[in-house]
């Protein structure tokens, strides 16, 4: 069995919500472009909105189940909370309609994370409607995951048993980062690294129950490579670095999962060695072009894995993250 915890969609029938919201420029029956204002954000094909196309690709790759999450550009965290509630409801309801209750898909919802009460209410509504969890962005403006409101939401997720998938988004722009997709190649790993540190040094893992099931996308970015540096700083410059954490960063590596979108066995081995074989799950970033195809290829070709380790990463760990094992 193979479970892919990191895929995205743009639901069928996405409406034009007015100025400033992402909208779709439909170029043909099989091609569209996500637009932000008059700027092209990303070309997309039927994989993003057509379940039959997704299922055909899953069959080709040997994937049994996909967790299907929002495309982060639709989050609306920069909008007033009432508007973000509206777009979350539209996105989440259309997601369920698009996936049509097929058990091979596990839909994750989005929430208006800038308003913790509204976010908790939308999560509860979606869980009751059939969503299996929630995807959140790794920050809301300058508020990282140790923000009090976001911690309140994470505590609620732990209380109701909702798995949380954390995805980097809204990376900084600059002339240096606007070349070569550098915002995605360097900004995304840095964003995720920063947010893992915020969870640790901001004392979040010391405050939320260990029943919180959390997964960071893209192998937790650059964090696994630099755990030693973070520990060294925690011990040597504790006056600055320790923040609200009770333990050094390496103490918390059993509190979250990471996906396997690292593309090569060497960084996959780093994930297994530093975070543990029970904390890595298959993810692909399907259907976007910087994702992995075929799904799970890096896990299958990693000859350092035992058969049991490979089985854990391909499915068993994901089922535990999802609360289904």
Automatic annotation (TrEMBL):
<dbReference type="InterPro" id="IPR006680">
    <property type="entry name" value="Amidohydro-rel"/>
</dbReference>
<keyword id="KW-0862">Zinc</keyword>
<dbReference type="Pfam" id="PF04909">
    <property type="entry name" value="Amidohydro_2"/>
</dbReference>
<comment type="similarity">
    <text>Belongs to the metallo-dependent hydrolases superfamily. ACMSD family.</text>
</comment>
<keyword id="KW-0456">Lyase</keyword>
<dbReference type="InterPro" id="IPR032466">
    <property type="entry name" value="Metal_Hydrolase"/>
</dbReference>
<dbReference type="InterPro" id="IPR032465">
    <property type="entry name" value="ACMSD"/>
</dbReference>
<keyword id="KW-0479">Metal-binding</keyword>
<comment type="subunit">
    <text>Monomer.</text>
</comment>
<feature type="domain" description="Amidohydrolase-related">
    <location>
        <begin position="3"/>
        <end position="324"/>
    </location>
</feature>
<keyword id="KW-0210">Decarboxylase</keyword>
<protein>
    <recommendedName>
        <fullName>2-amino-3-carboxymuconate-6-semialdehyde decarboxylase</fullName>
        <ecNumber>4.1.1.45</ecNumber>
    </recommendedName>
</protein>
<comment type="pathway">
    <text>Secondary metabolite metabolism; quinolate metabolism.</text>
</comment>
């Amino acid at each position: 069995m193979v479970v892919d915890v990191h895929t995205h969609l743009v639901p069928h029938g996405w409406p034009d919500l007015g100025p400033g919201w992402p909208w779709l420029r439909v170029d043909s029956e099989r091609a569209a472009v996500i637009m932000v204002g008059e700027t092209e954000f990303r070309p997309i094909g039927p994989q993003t909105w057509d379940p039959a196309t997704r299922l055909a690709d899953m069959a080709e790759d040997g994937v049994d189940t996909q967790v299907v999450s929002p495309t982060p550009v639709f989050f609306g965290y920069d909008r007033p909370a009432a508007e973000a509630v509206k777009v979350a409801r539209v996105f989440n309801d259309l997601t369920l309609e698009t996936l049509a209750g097929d058990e091979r898909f596990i839909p994750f919802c989005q929430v208006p994370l800038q308003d913790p009460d509204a976010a908790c209410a939308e999560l509860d509504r979606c869980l009751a409607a059939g969503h299996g969890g929630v995807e959140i962005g790794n920050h809301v403006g300058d508020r990282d995951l140790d923000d009090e409101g976001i911690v309140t939401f994470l505590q609620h997720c732990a209380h109701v048993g909702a798995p949380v998938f954390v995805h980097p988004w809204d990376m900084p722009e600059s002339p240096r980062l606007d070349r070569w997709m550098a915002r995605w190649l360097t900004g995304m790993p840095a964003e995720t690294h920063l947010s893992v540190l915020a969870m640790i040094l901001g004392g979040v893992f010391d405050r939320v129950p260990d029943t919180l099931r959390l997964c960071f996308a893209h192998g937790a970015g650059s964090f696994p490579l630099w755990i030693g540096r973070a520990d060294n700083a925690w011990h040597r410059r504790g006056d600055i670095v320790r923040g609200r954490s009770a333990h050094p960063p390496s103490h918390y590596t059993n509190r979250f999962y990471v996906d396997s979108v690292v593309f090569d066995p060497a960084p996959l081995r780093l994930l297994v060695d530093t975070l543990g074989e029970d904390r890595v799950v298959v993810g692909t970033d399907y259907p976007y072009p910087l994702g992995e195809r075929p799904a799970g290829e890096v896990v299958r070709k990693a000859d350092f894995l035992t058969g049991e380790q490979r089985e854990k990463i391909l499915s068993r760990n994901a089922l535990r993250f999802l609360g289904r094992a």
